[in-house]
Amino acid sequence: MTDKARDIGEKLRRIGRTISVAESCTAGGLAHEITRIPGSSAYFLGGIIAYDNAVKVSHLGVSRNDLERYGAVSAETARTMASNCLRRFGSDLAVSITGIAGPGGGTNEKPVGLVYIGIADRAGARSHARRFSGDRASIRAQAVDAALDGILELLGEDGALAAA
């Protein structure tokens, strides 16, 4: 994962853009990977670990109504977390992760291993669901890796945010 984080850092530094994160089930794992790279303070502004729903509401502006209607583990919550993280930090890019790492907490509708990754930039916010298997540590690691992949995809070969 360090190579992906290094590539992200190089691209963000080259295009002069910044990133922030909002994490739930990964509890800072994404921020940890990004900041393992020396010099990451040039592009990493910060993050919010919103493990509890009350923190999602108070610090990331997720509405209580959306939490009741869609749940904390949902595309809607992931998009809102990313969008409001972007605004809160004033970054050019924000990534959110919310999911069920297990071993408990899953349901038939939302099983253990279901994770939503949200990405927001000046063009808007989007999210997508991923399903991971394994134990808690493995699910969390896979979620962080998938978020890094999503960031790299957004940045593209030529740095998509450069034109933003």
Structure keywords:
164 residues; single chain; 6 helices; Maf protein; 43% helix
Description:
The protein contains 6 helices and 5 strands; from the N terminus they run αβαβαααβββα. It has 164 residues and is of the alpha/beta class. The chain has a single domain, classed as CinA-like (Maf protein). It has a 5-stranded mixed beta sheet with strand order 2-1-3-4-5, with helices on both faces. β4 (114-121) and β5 form a beta hairpin. It is globular and about 45 Å long. The protein starts with a helix and ends in a 9-residue tail after the last helix.
Q: Return the CATH architecture.
A: Alpha-Beta Complex
Biggest sheet, spatial arrangement of strands:
2-1-3-4-5
- Number of helical segments with 4 or more residues: 6
What is the terminal-to-terminal distance? 26 Å
What Rg do the Cα atoms give?
Answer: 15 Å
Strand residues, percent: 15-25%
CATH fold name? Maf protein
Overall strand count: 5
Q: Please write the string of helix (H) and strand (E) elements.
A: HEHEHHHEEEH
How does the helix and strand content classify structurally? alpha/beta
Shape: globular
Number of domains: 1
**Quick one: CATH superfamily?**
CinA-like
The major β-sheet equals:
5 strands, mixed
Average pLDDT score: 95
Low-confidence parts lasting 5 or more residues at pLDDT below 50?
none
CATH top level assignment: Alpha Beta
Helix content: 40-55%
